[in-house]
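[step 3/7] fold_predict: job queued, chain A
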Amino acid sequence: MHSINDFTDLEFLKKYCQQNLNKIATKSINNNLITSIKVRYVNLSGFFGYTTIGNFFFISDSMHLITDDPIYRSEHDDEIFDMFEELEPLRNKNIYIVRVVFAGFYTGFVDDKGKEIFTGDMVETRIIVNPTSPSAGGRQRAMHEGINARRINSITSITAGVCVVNNEPSVILDNHYAPLKWAVKLKVIGNVFYELSQHMEEVDIFSRCAALAQMRSTERDDVIFLSTFAPYFGELDWKRAALRQLGVEDEYS
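[step 4/7] structure written:
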């Protein structure tokens, strides 16, 4: 029997999808806890999308989305049905299978403005080390006996990437980490999916978060700035970045 925590391990998830490909194709994964786990991806036009377990699988390290959204029609490769007989139930059903880049699990936390936090996000946070009342997720925040809202500014302030460590969503620091359940404030400011390659199968989220933690301040500031426009492939398109800042997206948003 698998635990829910198993499904926030990407390598485990790849194997699970491979072993249950026919169940995925026939929509017969009969476990609501598993099929409610939300994941994020970057489509090949450089925008985030969101789905749940049972609507994708992996070929090697490459995530493949199963969708009926017609915007993906041109990216669908019908030959994939010949490669995997388990997918045959999906043939000729206006279903598109397209390659995307895995971009994190939903952590169960939202930031102070209500934005869901995924692994691979960069956050500004304040934490209490080993609080007496850790957060249970959502918008709930950690509390500690003797510390109230007036003293929040004296609590450790961090800008860091989010990843799962020891089954806990955490901010990755230089040679250590702090669980999100220790946070008293959380604000998503960007993510690590910048300067991606169109041929990239997978982003090593932990390595990018760890690299950010070890950067010198100037380089770190540059990366944080780029992260605010992510996700994107190759060099930053400043025209598109400006549109994003104005809240304008294209048909893939």
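[step 5/7] annotate
Residues 161 and 209 are 5 Å apart (CA to CA).
The helical segments are 10-19, 21-25, 32-35, 80-83, 205-214, 217-227, 238-245.
exit 0
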